[in-house]
Amino acid sequence: MLSTFAPTPCGAAAFSAALCDGLNALGADVGVVRVADDDAAPTDLRVVGQVADGSVQTCAALLNRYDVAFVQYQDGIYGGAAGEHVLDILDALQVPSIVLAHTIPKNPTTAQRSVLESIIAKADRVVVISDAANSRLRLGYSVDPMKISTIPHGVTLPRGAAPKRAGRPTLLTWGLIGPGKGIERVIDAMPSLSDVPGRPQYLVVGQTDPRVSAAEGEAYRRFCINRAQRLGVADSVRFDDCYRSQTALTDMARSAAAVVLPYDSTDQAASGVLAQAVASGRPVVATAFPHAVELLCTGAGIVVDHDDPAAMASALRRVLTEPRLAGALAGEGRRLAPTMAWPVVTGSYLRLAQKMLATRPAFV
């Protein structure tokens, strides 16, 4: 597997760790070539090398020791224009490859289009996380549609009884923080919720995205804190800047009144946070980015337009004050969760690899 990996705190690294765990549980031997832009030592024995430490040939040689190379492609992971450095590694592979395409721009630059089309041309199979991403790739790019498969983002199913909800009702957002997360949308709605019984609070959990931190420090977090103070809701908006495990985040989600994904993007066709929020069995409120429109369409959450503050405030008020609605949304999430559980998702990846090897005997 070629990907970011622990101790890097990002979604791709968390995805890779969960996928490795699932493959190991199914009896597969997994090694990881960690993409790193820091000097941090690997913390997992499955890490067999690091891109930061070696040449393209060294990285490819490590991947070539295995039956299949699984490559995660996401904006910002690899160097060069639109991550073009990954192309050199793909060229050096002697084993079949599966590329998971997290980033599929709706309106790509020339470089983004060229790199993504080249990645797909070089890969043996390509996986996307949503039907929206699948359609975008097939219709918007010059690619072989027969290579593309949709496998949902895996989720950790909650275990045991849900934590008791004590104190103020909590609206929860989590993930790496930075401009584009839309946190200010929820902050702007908080004054209108001050009359809701229990005085709801908004909890934002997550560190600042390292790339954002390197460029502008904690400017976005300070902007949000200042906005809450200016609106008179500072006592109802709380930031927790710790990196939390998936188990801890799942527990926090289960104790929340609702999970909110107020993202600015109208482009995002894959969101691991959204998938886990649905699986937590709590109501979800999200802006209308493509993955949210798709995953919430059967009733696991409420989707609001990006530029409609009144709709955001109304949706939050409804999940806080209408128990029957909140229960129905949560119930649909619980119904969907088993289809996205990591054992199911991992099995899909393993079957894809086995099928690929069976139809490409020259690689066996």
UniProtKB/TrEMBL annotation:
Signal peptide: none annotated. The keyword Transferase applies. Keywords: Glycosyltransferase, Transferase. Residues 11-157 form the Glycosyltransferase subfamily 4-like N-terminal domain. InterPro entries: Glyco_trans_4-like_N. GO terms for molecular function: glycosyltransferase activity. Pfam families: Glyco_trans_1_4 (PF13692), Glyco_transf_4 (PF13439). This is Glycosyl transferase family 1.
